């Protein structure tokens, strides 16, 4: 029996080894094509601003203002201002930046407050020492790749949006210049990889995240925070499903708007890119705030969760308390932890494809 299960899980390794280089190749080719398109100044000029013809200049000289241009000569600066660009700038600087900070800062404050009041959610019963396979090696690799890329994108994105106010006064123009160009490169090149890996992760987890009737009850009981009772949950509880569907909707919008910004020379005009920038910023800042909650729950917040995503296995007690319906399905496949420690973990029967993901 042990051998048949070992063979069954072996196919996953070469699959991963093939899929990742293929992804690198596809994204590399797309980036190279995008870079080539960007090196065409004619094409860029055609999409950057509305046509500057004789009529436009006549209109500018007359001091007349229209939807495309504003002339700021009355402020004695004598600048010709692109009106829609100015509107975008105002939206970004007056709304997206400050409210993004409020949402992320508010989430951090709520997490600290919650931890101070409620503390860590410990297991009610002692551990049994018997383990259930929850996350396969492929799922764990996908999860940690997506998480690492997300964190790098969040840090570089936050530097692009807020860094000027922090690093410029701290380190001066030279260091800030290097930081902002490094952030831009990291953000532009890692974004597409994040997009592809997130879509694969979402496809792999879909089956566990379909809404069920008991999810409503889970929300009504605040995921077990209201009262002592643990609400019913299958492989994924309703809170995890909410995180999943947020990634599948807002996450996908952030990816698509990011691609619109990443490859500017596929015909999209400046107005489209300004919209993409606002949508991308709002979506990404919102996701970053919720990701902080996810990271808290997955680490400090809940005893026993992180070990599932690092080792692949969870204790029976954790499964029973947090995912009782899933536990009922897989309880027969529990293995003593000593057996896992001796390295014969695959020889357990716990790696049935239906029971873990
Ligand atoms: C350091 C950062 C992170 C930590 C410590 C962490 C931790 C975890 C843990 C422990 C689980 C398993 C929960 C369970 O077994 O029920 C999990 C699941 C998951 N994580 Fe993370 N995570 C991190 C970042 C992220 C990020 C950035 C994303 C996406 C952008 C993400 C997406 C997911 C998804 C989709 C699931 C599955 C939930 C489901 O089944 O619906 N994680 N994470």
UniProtKB/TrEMBL annotation:
Domain of life: Bacteria
Disordered, as annotated region: 333-357
Keyword Iron in record: yes
Gene Ontology biological process: anaerobic respiration; formate oxidation; respiratory electron transport chain
Cell compartment(s), UniProt: Cell membrane
Keywords, comma-separated and alphabetical: Cell membrane, Electron transport, Heme, Iron, Membrane, Metal-binding, Transmembrane, Transmembrane helix, Transport
Membrane topology: Multi-pass membrane protein
Cofactor(s) it depends on: heme
Family matches, as Pfam families: Ni_hydr_CYTB
Residues of the Cytochrome b561 bacterial/Ni-hydrogenase domain: 134-312
One GO MF term: electron transfer activity
Transmembrane segments: 99-120, 141-160, 189-207, 242-263, 275-297
Gene Ontology CC entries for this record: formate dehydrogenase complex; plasma membrane
Protein family per UniProt: Belongs to the formate dehydrogenase gamma subunit family.
Protein's recorded name: Formate dehydrogenase subunit gamma
């Amino acid at each position: 029996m042990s051998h048949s299960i070992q063979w069954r899980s072996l196919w996953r390794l070469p699959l991963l080894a093939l899929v990742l280089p293929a992804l690198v190749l596809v994204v590399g080719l797309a980036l190279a094509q995008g870079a080539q398109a960007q090196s065409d100044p004619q094409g860029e000029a055609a999409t950057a601003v509305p046509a500057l013809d004789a009529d436009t200049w006549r209109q500018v000289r007359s001091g007349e203002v229209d939807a495309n241009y504003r002339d700021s000569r009355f402020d004695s600066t004598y600048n010709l201002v692109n009106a829609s660009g100015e509107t975008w700038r105002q939206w970004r600087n007056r709304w997206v930046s400050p409210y993004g900070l409020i949402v992320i800062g508010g989430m951090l404050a709520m997490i600290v407050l919650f931890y101070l009041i409620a503390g860590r959610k410990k297991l009610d019963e002692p551990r049994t020492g018997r383990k259930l396979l929850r996350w396969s090696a492929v799922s764990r690799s996908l999860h940690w790749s997506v998480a690492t890329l997300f964190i790098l994108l969040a840090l570089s994105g936050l530097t692009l949006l807020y860094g000027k106010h922090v690093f410029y006064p701290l380190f001066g123009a030279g260091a800030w210049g290097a930081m902002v160009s490094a952030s831009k490169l990291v953000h532009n090149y890692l974004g597409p990889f994040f997009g592809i890996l997130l879509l694969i992760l979402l496809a792999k987890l879909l089956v566990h995240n379909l809404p069920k009737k008991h999810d409503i009850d889970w929300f009504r009981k605040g995921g077990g925070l209201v009262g002592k009772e643990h609400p019913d949950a299958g492989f994924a509880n309703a809170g995890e499903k909410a995180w999943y569907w947020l990634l599948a909707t807002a996450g996908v919008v952030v990816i698509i708007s990011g691609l619109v910004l990443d490859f500017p020379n596929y015909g999209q005009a400046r107005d489209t890119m300004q919209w993409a920038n606002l949508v991308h910023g709002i979506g990404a800042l919102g996701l970053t705030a919720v990701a902080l909650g996810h990271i808290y729950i997955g680490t400090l917040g809940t005893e026993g969760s992180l070990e599932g995503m690092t080792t692949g296995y969870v204790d029976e007690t954790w499964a029973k308390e947090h995912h009782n319906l899933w536990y009922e399905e897989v309880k027969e496949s529990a293995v003593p932890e000593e057996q896992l420690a001796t390295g014969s973990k695959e020889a357990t029967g716990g790696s049935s494809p239906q029971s873990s993901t």
